[in-house]
C-alpha cells in the first residue's frame, strides 16, 4: 500500500519500494525503500549564479523536496556533491553550514567532475530517512 498519491509502487516480499516524481522517462527523482529516501541529482535552477548561489539553490530544493516527502534536512544521512571546480569548495561549504545544523550534519563526499552542463557548477544526490508518520 502506498501512502502517497500517484506513486507507482512495487512489492518485493514484505519490502515496499516507492518511485516518486518521474523525470522525462529516464529515472525517478526519488526512490523510497523501507523509509529511506534515495534522491537523484539536483542541479541549480539558475546556472548563471556563482557557486554560493547555486549551492544555496540546490540546498533549498533539497529542503523543499524533503518537506514534500515528510522529512527534513535533519534526517539527511549522506550527500554526494559533484563539482566542476573543487577550488570553489569553500563557497559551497559556507552555504552548506547555513542549511545544516551542526548536530545534524550528514556524511558527505565532494567529487570533482569535468562537466555538468552549461554553467552548472554542482549536482547533488542525497540519502535521507523519512520518519514514520504518526
Automatic annotation (TrEMBL):
It comes from Bradyrhizobium betae. Signal peptide: none annotated. PANTHER family: PTHR47328, RUTC FAMILY PROTEIN YOAB (PTHR47328:SF1). This is RidA family protein. It comes from the Bacteria. Belongs to the RutC family. Gene3D superfamilies: RutC-like. Pfam families: Ribonuc_L-PSP.
